[in-house]
Amino acid sequence: MDAIQTAGDAIRIFNNGSRKGLIEYARYLARQYLRVHGTIHSRIVRKLCSDAGVLPDNIDDRWLGAVFHSKLFVYTGKDFQYEDRARNCHVGRTTKIWTEHPAVAQEVLFCPPKPSYLAPTVTIDDRKLAEAEAEIVRLKEENARLMALLDAATAPIPASNEPVSAGAFLAL
Question: Is the pTM higher than 0.70?
Answer without folding.
Answer: no
